[in-house]
Design goal:
The complex is a heterotetramer. Chain A is an all-alpha fold. Helix content of chain A is 77%, strand content 0%. Chain A is built from three helices and no strands. In chain A, helix 1 runs antiparallel to helix 2. Chains A and C meet through helix 1, helix 2 and helix 3 of A and helix 1, helix 2, helix 3, helix 5 and helix 6 of C.
């Protein structure tokens, strides 16, 4: 039988991978993708406990998380596009100017 | 070191591509460059920053060939330039050489020439309408246009045996006498055609998408058009009332009554309307001409061997696409010393860059269609 | 038994997809693997009887956000970026984080379970509590979570305006 | 022991059976839809269309299939190989999966999901990935432009289409496709009559979402050669084409379920019109008679045979539809057979209108397309949703009748639409100065 622990472990695994991605990659877009991965891991957790407790509140929070993720992606990618127009690079450690 | 990836475009300051800029090669193998035109587009996203037409893929050296053929031998070659309006090409060449020889075609020949040339104008405009509409995405008009064009080509076939490269005329008059029932065929075509052209207009003229795609696209002001030497429907759509049939009448045009349609704005929509009206006027001319074809000889007295006196002559006619001029220089031998053609498509194509700048890729296609180029004529 | 197989297949796809997402050199490949991982997650939501959320995940995450990602990756695609060093020198930070999380897992698996099981000690409720899923979520969302819902819409509006401003060529 | 009985009653048996049938039948169906499209196109363009392979080109799809499968499969040298390879499959899978949830008749679907409609919409939207990735992986400017256009277009029109679906959902009160049809049976009117504006918006949006003319910009042949498919050839190209047709079937099915009464016969709740039940067998009988009549007129023996075969197929279908009539009126099998007929008929009519506008209209330009979507369809759709919601409130709280309430909602929406459309025509963009 499948316990809630399975889902929590999966969530933890995805979260860890996401964190490693954020911390080690240089490409900003992949960093953003790793953040999506982290948010996704959180969603799994929320939904798993929602199922465990028999309440839909967790799923509603997951919807809010997805909303936040959409907003974050839109803004983040907008910044990348705006930056790329001025300096054609996608590497995070080369984006070291405060103004241009 | 110049970067090979960033070719220079005439009139554009920087050669370095911006972050959003790409260079798109349209053609020579492309569904809507009407043959082997190659257009290099420098685009900001989908907007044209600059363009460059690259021609010559169909160059056959027609003008050079003329120098090694006798005057009659060269006549079939001109049919291969603007191959969708071969009759008009032949008329221009024959009249140019006639001018050089100082002979004039007999009245019967002139009238038949007028009828055939006007039919050819309708056929050429029909082909333009079909392909132009196809470029803009209307799939159906092209088949209707070919249906009517077929009738015209049948008349040509009955008259001279050829449909496309007709070689219908001869220096000094006509190649053949008209066949029995020629008048009847032309009259019937003209009667049917009146309703057919309304049918095309019903499909397109009021169509919101068509209007949206053509209005305000590829605007050419009258001054620009004159500066660039643009002629034909493109010039007339810009509001300049200039038609060689009226200005320097040739063949039998001075006997007939017709209007020169002009457009107010010089955009693609106006050029469409102008050409549609021109088809109506051509039909009108044909109907007038068919009423009274004078009897008489069809060939003026010209020798078997043409040996024009030394001299030079420029003669131009109003071909379907614009002013088609022939500049023929004779050195007194049986071969022309030099023949230079002023092809309307080639000159009109110069307006291309002016017309597409600032527009989108989709408009490039509309503009290529609206100039109505034939690459055989551009490249010669 | 069937449940377990389905879970392990989906979880495996998700984890492998996630690993490939953060290790691929080409950002487009990363996006493709992220899509795979997200689709697997949608499957897991389905298994958790969250049909509505599963579809929302597909529509919003995969069909919306990831399209945006792919779009941007294609716009800023640089051949140069492929040849550069892909990882920075923060490996030790990442290592510490991983170690910390591993410690947490060990804690949950051993001490946590025996000493204070918390909610995990409560037996899971039967699955039919959550259905009809869409209706339940709708009622709960508009009865108890009206204010957060409105705030979320304002957040989206702000993000939309921000993205438009950011994307405009000249401000 | 797994006897036949056990297998048949296994919960996965019917879904898997439907799945297999779908996968086997669909390519054939798509092939014949393409033939139908070509025939309709030919008819509208004053020509004959395919006539050579089989009588009246009836075997053309098979010939095309064989030819395309044997064609050389070219991968551009600079292409991103595995994405290039996987892209058509993604698109096709998405279309097929969406079809799985479509009920072709009562009880005649792979799965009746609680969130059926959302599922269909969500999964069919995934097809865009195949297009975008395929266009990117081809490493060609035409493909890339096509892919970018496609992504922008599909995402934009999904908003309008989704809003239009919501107006239907409000009337039906469920996301389950089956219950949506039952709701229309209950109301006694298809939702297309109750919310014509919603249907119209969905129709336009579905044309745009499936990249059909006049919105076929991602593959506009006169501009972008073939858009995202420029570099594809042979079987992979077929998969893209099949996916496009499968997507058309999906959007047509969604429209049929939500607005056109699904598998319901016209006037399903009017008992006096029950004689309409005799229409399906009669229709097939007429078709069969026509085929038999044409059979001796075919020039070659084998063509006679093919024509006779098609006549027999029609006869068989007529027999099946007629046999279903002999079953009791409430029999599930009868409902499934006749429901399937009406459903497919509606889908074909919907597709016919796709073809019709394709051969009539020129193509939009990209900025015009976007303006139409964002500045006209989406506002109108939002107003429509609000109007329908208010009308339902009027019905519930103020006791209005169904028709007056819906009529008012439609009127309000049409007024707003007229106001939006009547605004001054602004140029979509200003061409920058020459030489700039």
């Amino acid at each position: 039988m499948l316990s809630t622990g399975h889902y929590v472990l999966l969530s933890l695994a995805l979260f860890t991978i996401g964190v490693i991605g954020v911390l080690t990659r240089r490409n900003v877009i992949i960093i953003l993708m790793s953040i999506e991965l982290i948010l996704n891991a959180v969603n799994i957790n929320l939904v798993a406990f929602s199922r465990h407790l028999g309440q839909v509140d967790g799923q509603i929070f997951a919807i809010f998380v997805i909303t936040a993720a959409a907003a974050e992606a839109a803004i983040g990618l907008g910044i990348i596009i705006a930056f790329f127009r001025n300096r054609p690079t996608v590497l995070a450690d080369e984006m070291d100017m405060l103004k241009w | 070191m110049a970067d090979t990836r960033t070719p220079s475009f005439p009139g554009v300051q920087t050669t370095i591509l911006g972050a959003d800029e790409i260079i798109l090669n349209m053609g020579p193998q492309h569904p809507s460059t009407h043959g082997v035109l190659r257009v290099k587009l420098r685009m900001d996203g989908e907007r044209i920053v600059a363009s460059e037409c690259i021609i010559g893929y169909l160059h056959r050296g027609v003008e050079k060939i003329a120098e090694h053929r006798s005057y009659q031998q060269f006549a079939p070659y001109v049919d291969r330039m603007d191959y969708v309006a071969a009759v008009s090409n032949g008329l221009g060449y024959c009249e140019a050489v006639e001018k050089l020889l100082g002979v004039e075609a007999p009245p019967r020949a002139s009238v038949v020439r007028t009828i055939l040339t006007e039919l050819q104008r309708i056929a050429s405009h029909l082909l333009w309408l079909g392909t132009h509409a196809l470029d803009i995405g209307a799939l159906t008009p092209v088949f209707y246009c070919f249906r009517e064009r077929e009738e015209i080509l049948k008349i040509f076939e009955k008259y001279c045996g050829a449909r496309l490269t007709t070689h219908a005329f001869r220096i000094g008059g006509l190649q053949y006498e008209t066949y029995d029932g020629f008048e009847h065929d032309v009259a019937r075509f003209c009667q049917d055609f009146a309703t057919k052209i309304d049918e095309y207009e019903r499909l397109l003229t009021e169509n919101r998408i068509w209007v949206g795609r053509t209005k305000g696209v590829g605007v050419l002001t009258a001054q620009d058009a004159i500066d660039l030497g643009v002629t034909g429907p493109v010039l007339r759509a810009s509001g300049v009332e200039w038609d060689i049939r009226k200005a320097f009448p040739y063949a039998a045009y001075d006997q007939y009554e017709f209007k020169i349609p002009t457009g107010p704005n010089g955009d693609t929509y106006d050029r469409y309307l102008v050409r549609m009206e021109e088809m109506r006027q051509s039909r009108h001319i044909c109907l007038q001409a068919i009423e009274n074809i004078p009897a008489g000889p069809i060939l003026a007295k010209v020798g078997k061997v043409l040996k024009p006196p030394p001299g030079e002559v420029y003669h131009s006619i109003e071909a379907p696409k614009g002013e088609l001029g022939y500049y023929v220089v004779s050195d007194g031998t049986i071969q022309p010393y030099r023949v230079r053609v002023r092809p309307p498509s080639f000159i009109n194509l110069q307006a291309f860059d002016r017309m597409v700048r600032g527009h989108l890729v989709a408009d490039v296609v509309a503009v290529i269609g609206t100039i109505d180029i034939v690459l055989g004529e551009v490249d010669r | 038994m069937m449940d377990l197989v389905i879970f392990y297949v989906l979880a495996g796809i998700a984890v492998v997809g996630a690993v490939l997402t953060v290790t691929r050199r080409n950002a487009v490949h990363s996006a493709v693997f992220l899509i795979t991982a997200l689709m697997a997650t949608a499957g897991i939501f389905l298994q958790l009887r969250a049909e509505f959320l599963s579809v929302v995940q597909i529509i919003l995450y995969v069909g919306g956000i990831m399209v945006l990602f792919v779009f941007v990756v294609m716009l800023v695609n640089l051949d140069v970026a492929l040849r550069q060093v892909q990882f920075n020198r923060q490996k030790w930070v990442a290592g510490i984080v991983v170690l910390g999380l591993a410690a947490q897992i060990v804690f949950i698996l051993t001490i946590g379970r025996t000493q204070d099981p918390g909610v995990l000690g409560v037996p899971p409720t039967p699955a039919d509590q959550l259905s009809p899923n869409t209706e339940k979520i709708g009622m709960r969302l508009f009865e108890n979570y009206m204010l957060p819902f409105e705030i979320a819409s304002i957040l989206l509006l702000v993000a939309m305006i921000g993205a438009v401003i950011m994307g405009k060529r000249r401000i | 022991m797994a006897t036949l009985e056990n297998i048949v009653h296994h919960p996965f048996f019917l879904p898997i059976l439907y799945g297999v049938v779908l996968v086997l039948v669909l390519p054939l169906l798509i092939g014949y839809l393409v033939l139908l499209e070509r025939k309709i196109m030919a008819d509208m363009q004053a020509r004959l269309g395919p006539m050579r392979v089989g009588p009246h080109g009836l075997l053309q799809p098979l010939a095309d299939g064989v030819k395309l499968m044997l064609k050389e499969d070219i991968t551009p040298t600079e292409a991103d190989r595995w994405i290039f390879w996987v892209a058509p499959i993604v698109t096709f899978t998405a279309g097929m999966t969406a079809l799985a949830a479509v009920p072709f008749g009562p009880g005649f679907q792979v799965a009746d999901l609680n969130v059926g409609l959302l599922f269909v919409v969500a999964v069919s939207a995934l097809g865009i990935f195949g297009i975008v990735l395929g266009g990117w992986a081809s490493n060609s400017h035409y493909s890339l432009l096509g892919a970018l256009r496609s992504a922008a277009q599909i995402v934009s029109y999904e908003v309008a289409g989704g809003m239009a679906l919501v107006s239907g959902l409000l009337l039906g009160g469920s996301l389950s496709l089956r219950r949506l049809v039952e709701a229309q049976h209950g109301e006694g009117a298809w939702f297309v009559f109750l919310a014509p504006v919603g249907f119209f918006i969905y129709f336009v949006a579905s044309v745009a979402e499936t990249n059909r003319a006049p919105f076929d910009l991602p593959e506009a042949e006169s501009e972008l050669v073939a858009g995202f498919m420029t570099e594809y050839s042979g079987f992979r190209w077929v998969i893209f084409m099949m996916a496009e047709t499968a997507n058309m079937i999906v959007v047509a099915s969604v429209a049929t379920v939500l607005f056109l009464g699904g598998w319901l016969r016209p006037f399903a709740s009017t008992r006096e019109l029950d004689f309409l039940d005799y229409l399906p067998p009669l229709l097939f009988l007429v078709l069969a008679a026509y085929c038999f009549w044409r059979t001796p007129k075919q020039p070659v023996g084998i063509q006679k045979g093919v024509m006779a075969l098609f006549a027999l197929i029609c006869l068989g279908l007529a027999g099946a539809e007629g046999w279903a009539l002999t079953l009791p009126a409430d029999s599930a099998l009868r409902a499934a057979i006749h429901g399937g007929f009406w459903f497919l008929l509606k889908v074909f009519l919907y597709l016919y209108s796709f073809y019709w506008i394709r051969f009539t209209f020129p193509r939009y330009r990209f900025d015009q397309l976007m303006r139409l979507g964002w500045q006209f369809l989406i506002p109108v759709a939002i107003v429509h949703v609000l109007a329908i919601g208010s009308a339902l409130l009027l019905r519930q709280r103020a006791g209005w009748g169904l028709w007056p309430a819906m009529g008012l909602a439609t009127l309000v929406t049409l007024l707003v639409a007229a106001w939006l459309a009547g605004g001054k025509e602004r140029p979509a963009y200003l061409p920058s100065e020459p030489g700039g």
